[in-house]
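Weekly modeling sync, notes
Attendees: S.R. (lead), two postdocs, one rotation student

Agenda item 3: backlog of single-chain predictions. S.R. asked that every request posted to the team notebook include the full sequence so nobody has to chase files. The rotation student volunteered to paste the first one in as an example of the format we agreed on. Action items at the bottom.

Example entry:
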Amino acid sequence: MPDVIKTGKKSELPAWSPQRPRMFFLHIPKTAGMSLRLFFSNQYPVSEILPANDWVQLLQVPTEYFEEYRLYQGHFSIGMLDLLPSARVGHIGIYREPRTLQAIE
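Predicted structure, as returned to the notebook:
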């Protein structure tokens, strides 16, 4: 069992976890994406999550900082992939009709 850091909060955080892969989650509104966004947000340190959820917020983040992040998620289009680092980035999208989960490598 891994050591844990006592945080004083309801849950305890693992002291170590493996580095997560770079991931882009295309959140299309009204597709139950908030549950998946919450799940992903709990898998990555805050410092590795792009601090933008839409194109307006993204304009506030200098592109030279994109390399520092490992999780990119929000209400973007697939064109967002063109802005991400050249390193391999997995991408996931949920579509409403039919409700499917697509992971593209």
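Discussion: group reviewed the output briefly. Strands lie at 4-5, 13-14, 23-26, 71-74, 90-95, 100-104.
Action items: rotation student to repeat for the remaining queue; S.R. to check formatting next week.
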